């Protein structure tokens, strides 16, 4: 029996800055799947606790994500994506 993931309708489009693309390109395949889940979550839920353009940051699933938000265009632009220190130390 296969499990299918329920896809929620995203409210925000996720864009990555060139620096974020570079950082995402350096993660392992397993970490990329986790990061993809983080981006999906941000796209659906947005950032209800942090209003305005930003910059904002959120730490989810071992990643610290720095981003700005455009509510008119419904876009979150990721500027940095880094492993948290605790997660990086545990992976070593």
Structure notes:
The chain is of the alpha+beta class and 92 residues long. The chain has one domain: YaeB-like fold. Helix content is 35%, strand content 28%. It is built from three helices and four strands, in the order E-H-H-E-E-E-H. The protein has helices spanning 18-25, 29-45, 85-91; strands at 13-16, 56-60, 63-70, 75-83. A four-stranded mixed beta sheet has the order 1-4-3-2. The longest helix is centred in the middle third of the chain and has 17 residues, at 29-45. The radius of gyration is 14 Å and the shape is globular. The N and C termini lie far apart (35 Å). The model has no long low-confidence stretch (mean pLDDT 80).
Short structural summary:
The protein has three helices and four strands. It has helices at 18-25, 29-45, 85-91, and strands spanning 13-16, 56-60, 63-70, 75-83.
Number of structurally distinct domains: 1
| Approximate helicity band | 25-40%
What is the CATH third-level topology name?
Answer: YaeB-like fold
Sheet having the most strands? 4 strands, mixed
Please report which band the strand proportion falls in: under 5%, 5-15%, 15-25%, 25-35%, 35-45% or over 45%.
25-35%
At CATH level 2, the architecture is 2-Layer Sandwich
Topology:
Layout: E1 13-16, H1 18-25, H2 29-45, E2 56-60, E3 63-70, E4 75-83, H3 85-91
Structural descriptors:
YaeB-like fold; 28% strand
């Amino acid at each position: 029996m296969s499990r299918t993931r329920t896809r929620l309708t995203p409210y925000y489009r996720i864009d990555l800055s060139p620096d974020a693309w570079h950082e995402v390109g350096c993660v392992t395949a397993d970490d990329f799947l986790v990061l993809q889940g983080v981006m999906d979550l941000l796209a659906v839920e947005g950032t209800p606790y942090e209003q305005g353009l930003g910059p904002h940051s959120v730490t989810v699933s071992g990643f610290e994500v720095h981003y700005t938000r455009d509510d008119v265009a419904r876009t979150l632009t990721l500027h940095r994506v880094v492993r948290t220190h605790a997660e990086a130390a545990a992976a070593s």
